[in-house]
Amino acid sequence: MVNLDPLAEKKPIPYTLYFYGDAVDFLKKLLAIDLNIKLDEDWYRELEGLRASWNTLLEEALSRKYQGFVNPSKFFQELGKALPRESVMVGGQGMHIVYTFSFVRIKAVRGYLAAFNLGAMGFAFPAALGAKLALPERDVYAVVGDGEFMMTVQDLETAVREKIPVKVIIVNDNSYRVLYARQKAQKMGRVFGTLHTNPDFVKLADAFGVEVMSINSDEEISKAVKYITEKSEGPRVLEIKIHPDDLPPMNIEAALRF
Fold it and tell me: Kindly report the CA angle at 80 between 79 and 82, in degrees rounded to 5?
């Protein structure tokens, strides 16, 4: 463990070795040492097996087809290819951000802002507004779930009034999907209080004077990606409607432990 934060020592993890220092400096010094390490073929084969399993998960997610819904894996794969190198993505809390882990490559420093594992629903949109004000030369995208966005949707007025051209991508599944998925997997399928309705996000954004687009099929993905990545004078909203039973590629066994 190499960390500049002394609080890391207090985590209940049995480190074999702990170094207080900068990770980049540590790696530079490590590379300068002739360690003469022999490749462990068994370890290499294990890694290749895990890599193959992960690629199979990605391919399966991309192959899904829905009637009246977008395959979010396909959308985020195409978005990831189209994003400018210096863009900033901001994620809040919810299953929607897991698609970005799998399909969006972050290529610049401070290119992803998030509050993982803190239950911080509502973080993404206001954080994206702040990021755009701090870095006006970079494109900023807030990836929000429908439930999360409803906690801070009123700040569309702020974005319009202050002319903050942040991009908002609403992954709309009409549910609190983390909890919904847990109920189906861990509570014998008893679903209670996690499926809900939403306002018409197109009409809602329009009422604030915000440019908006909504899609519900894979055939619309390309035009939606073009719409949300092109330059704009003010904020833009893109809604993608997805099926609540779609799960992003993940290690479900590990995820259910938390």
Answer: 65
